[in-house]
Inverse folding.
């Protein structure tokens, strides 16, 4: 029994980054007005770069860029985003472990995954860990317009997590067993193949 407990603890500590500071009452902002991402982020293998004051990525294939900050339990996350791909396919992760990534083409997240214009620009959803699974809330169809800058917003209040684009609701998920606590407390940018630009990240405790 002791051996099993030690193994479980080893796995827990191995897959969760240590030492990341918590976001305080003042919140967090990043405008990407610099040349390098720096130590603020944990890049799990995607081609993330700063380009002309934007965070740019294309072809990360589910290798997220994790913010090295611990999220408040209830929080609002806002970010500007544009897709230069006709398929849209904008993706964010929230309340994950800060380190998980795809090892193969198949990927089960440790977070909630927001898909805006996913699956050929046909679906908006918030998925609980598996974006291809049944545990997801699908919103009304609202395709991403190529090149348009959207202000995305994600909020969690209690057990409900909701996402908007320019104040238009994309999806809302009521999770009776919410992802929270250690291992479910980080935010990430993610991407499969679309050409995405992000800017003006703001995280506000609620």
């Amino acid at each position: 029994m002791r051996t099993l407990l030690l193994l479980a603890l080893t796995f827990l500590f191995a897959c969760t980054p240590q030492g990341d500071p918590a976001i305080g009452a003042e919140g967090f902002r990043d405008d990407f007005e610099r040349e390098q991402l720096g130590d603020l982020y944990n890049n799990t293998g995607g081609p993330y770069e700063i380009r002309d004051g934007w965070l740019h990525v294309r072809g990360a294939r589910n290798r997220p860029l994790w913010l090295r900050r611990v999220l408040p339990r209830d929080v609002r996350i806002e970010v500007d985003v544009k897709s230069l791909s006709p398929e849209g396919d904008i993706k964010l992760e929230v309340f994950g472990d800060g380190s998980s990534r795809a090892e193969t083409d198949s990927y089960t997240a440790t977070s909630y995954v927001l898909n805006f214009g996913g699956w050929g620009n046909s679906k908006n959803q918030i998925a609980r860990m598996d974006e291809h699974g049944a545990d997801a809330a699908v919103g009304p169809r609202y395709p991403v317009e190529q090149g348009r800058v959207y202000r995305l917003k994600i909020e969690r209040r209690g057990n409900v997590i909701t996402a908007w684009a320019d104040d238009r609701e994309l999806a809302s998920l009521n999770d009776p067993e919410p992802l929270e606590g250690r291992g479910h407390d980080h935010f990430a940018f993610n991407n499969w193949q679309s050409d995405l630009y992000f800017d003006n990240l703001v995280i506000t405790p609620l």
Summary: The chain has one domain: 27-205. Confidence is low (pLDDT under 50) at residues 2-15.
